[in-house]
């Protein structure tokens, strides 16, 4: 769950033609991403350079394998290492595309932090101040989650080859961590805000309480032992 602060006058930025512009942005970035993936498809040079490693490390036949990627450096006919301009340019485009959401996260995160901090000091009741403090902590957590589960893994996996580093686990990490992001994103609100946490825990308490078995002992007095 996300908390939004806005001024009524700012809604004009999301109306009319500007609304169409906002709605077109995901399609434009998606088209750029699809074009990048097509440009990084298999080619003869990359296939031959990967053939030995794919066989020795993964025991795979490169001719029967689909992959996406490229080398930042190529070897000319004299054995000299030179930059692969195409691969480097595509990586810079990917970094630029990642820069837009990263900028939005920090920019609006800082603005929200300032607003919440002001609300904490202006709270009219103890409950209001406590709630705003909890929302502030949840905001910080929701800022860090995409940073560690989306941006940093991709930046490291794409940037390591620039420095000659071979990180074999990056493929597994990049393929795994982003899938956890949608699950982890709402958890700060659920566990750091008292009302949500209590509702969440009470839901499971009711479920488990229905399955509890209570031992009951029934005692009947022996009437024969009672004398008249």
Overview of this structure, please?
It is built from seven helices and two strands. It has about 230 residues and is mainly alpha-helical. It has a two-stranded antiparallel sheet with strand order 1-2. It is elongated, with a radius of gyration of 29 Å. The N and C termini lie far apart (about 75 Å). The model is unreliable at about 225-228 (pLDDT under 50). It comes from Caenorhabditis remanei (Caenorhabditis vulgaris). This is Seven TM Receptor.
Brief sketch in words of this structure:
The chain is mainly alpha-helical. It contains 7 helices and 2 strands, in the order H-H-E-E-H-H-H-H-H.
In percent terms, what proportion of residues is strand? under 5%
Order of strands across the main sheet: 1-2
Number of strands: 2
Give Rg in angstroms: 29 Å
Instruction: Profile the largest sheet.
Output: 2 strands, antiparallel
List unreliable stretches of 5+ residues. Answer: 223-228
Structural class: mainly alpha
N- and C-termini, Cα separation? 74 Å
The helix content is 55-70%
Topology:
Layout: H1 17-39, H2 44-58, E1 73-75, E2 81-83, H3 85-121, H4 126-159, H5 170-184, H6 187-192, H7 194-210
Antiparallel strand pairs: 1-2
Helix pairs in contact: 3-4, 4-5
